[in-house]
Amino acid sequence: MNTPQLLLSALALGAAYALVAVGFVLTLNAAGAVNFAHGDSVMLGGVAAVMLGVAAQAVGLTVPGIVLLPAVILIGAALGLVIGALGFLPLKDRPPSAVFVATIAIASVFEQSATAFFGPAPRSAPPVWHQGAQQPLAMIVVAAVVLGLVYLVLERTQLGRRFRALAQDREMARALGIPATPLIATAFAAGGSLAGLAGALLGHQFLVVANQGPGYMLKAYIAVVIGGWGSVPGALAGALLIALFETFVAASLSAVWAQALLYVAVLLVLLLRPQGLFGEPAGRRA
Questions:
Q1: Which of 41, 82, 90, 114 could cross-link 210 (Cys pair, CB 3.0–4.6 Å)?
Q2: Which residues, including other chains, have CB under 8 Å from residue 226's CB and lie 6 or more apart?
Q3: Is residue 284 part of a domain?
């Protein structure tokens, strides 16, 4: 594979990782706690895309994956609401470790349920548009459009201003009368929808496996560490850097070396710039 093709593949992978990382940060900023079920929401988005494709074929239809994406997004949003309703809202006044354990338990339920009903074997989701070079291009375009809409909502709407106020200072936002619980629920739904969409985009080229959720969770966490804890632009940049690093190192050495060296790079970032490459030294959220 030549350099332009590698770059295109890296950008497509980075676009999907960016959806995962930005969804993770939205929930993190609103709830102030890590959603460890986020990676399994990505996996279930892939499962939903596979099953919707199978259902379409059962009635004699062959549809491109892009037609299925709105349904996958809605399923992801519903999963996000379930995670928020079970793993955060009942425990919001307890120590953060309670939320960690609850979302890990939910992630385990998702994984075991997917294994039972979907099976352990890898499955392929429908391509976003067509096979070949058009597939990564379609992934990039879809992710760019969705992330652009997220940016417009965060920066140009009253909902976005309230959400950013909640992220920057939760207690002050509550004192100003900003309703925290509906915003947190919205963040879980938005995070779940972005995760589900990412799973559908990744599900053709990288297949769908019931136990791949923790891997996606780890990628989101690494993107946030690299980009800056709580920074939405930082998460986007961190996700793109991870994809570029993985793709080119894997092509030069191997996929195993790409993963090992990625973790070495994360350790160096933590040691040399613990606030992340794009974060504020004081840990201020963007």
A1: 114
A2: 234, 237, 238, 241, 242, 265, 266, 269, 276, 277
A3: no
- Give the pLDDT score at 279: 67
Residue 218 domain flag? no
Looking from the CA of 151 toward its CB, the CA atoms found within 13 Å total 11
Q: Is residue 52 a contact partner of residue 72, using CB atoms and an 8 Å limit?
A: yes
Is 286 a residue whose pLDDT tops 50? no
Q: Answer whether residue 107 is part of any domain.
A: yes
Structure pTM?
0.92
CA distances (Å), 66 to each of 53, 56, 85, 145, 231, in order?
11, 13, 29, 13, 29
DSSP 42-77: HHHHHHHHHHHHHHHHHTT----HHHHHHHHHHHHH
Listed in sequence order, the residues at least 6 apart from 230 whose beta carbon sits closer than 8 Å to its beta carbon are: 25, 28, 29, 167, 224, 279, 283, 285, 286
Assess if residue 118 is contained within a domain.
Answer: yes
Angle of the 180-205 helix axis to the 3-31 helix axis, nearest 10: 160
Domain with 200 in it: 3-210
Residue 59: what are its φ and ψ, rounded to 5°? -105, 15
pLDDT digits 0-9 by tens, 60-105? 887 888 999 999 999 999 999 999 999 999 998 888 889 999 999 9
pLDDT at position 1 over 90: no
User: How many distinct structural domains can be found in the chain?
Assistant: 1
